[in-house]
Amino acid sequence: MTLTDYLPAYRLRLRTDRLELRLPDLDDLVALADEAAAGVHGPDFMPFLVPWTECEPVERGRRTLLHQMGVIAGITPERWMLPLVVLHDGKVIGMQEVGATDFKATREAHTGSWLGLAHHGQGFGTEMRAAVLEFVFTGLGADFALSASFEGNGPSEGVSRKLGYKADGIDHKVLNGVRRQDNRWRLTRADWEANRKHEVAIEGLDAEVLASLGLDGAEA
């Protein structure tokens, strides 16, 4: 038996012109922790609801590694999150999450991501989100994809608008005792197809992977 026999989602590979996305092995997790330790965002804006980056570099890396391990351990057909590492030229540069609850019924997935600071401003954020959008719409048969970004997070909002998302209302969150506006974004299948610019290859999406995400082959 191999890892993929026990956790079929490890067979998945998403490939774009420049990037590969996959579930992380232990070496990938260490590389991801190193990226987190080196910095994920500037000091003047906290983009995350849980301020996990507000600590010393080694602790930031440790939190990253342990969190991703826990997310992988929590994958079930009814509720799943795939914390995919993003590789460029064979090097881990960040992570792209995609997940859903009761996807078989809702046909709705949500995403989140971050990149190491050294890799900002190169179009990777758009390309890696496009990869998981192709996965959920074409691979899994989604009807909608959701995202959110705090007011003032221009790069994240820019990615959403570029890929065809529409504004979907706001929420208010409290971060370190301060109210923050969280802008919701929704992408329909029609808008995805109208704004689809990146070619994405989906590898390893077989019947066992679909079953692990709550689907069978006829439903995707």
UniProtKB/TrEMBL annotation:
Residue stretches making up the N-acetyltransferase domain: 12-190
Database matches in InterPro entries: Acyl_CoA_acyltransferase, GNAT_dom, Ribosomal_N-acetyltransferase
SUPFAM superfamilies, alphabetized: Acyl-CoA N-acyltransferases (Nat)
Lineage: superkingdom: Bacteria
Signal sequence, start to end: none
Entry protein name: GNAT family N-acetyltransferase
Source organism of the structure: Glycomyces niveus
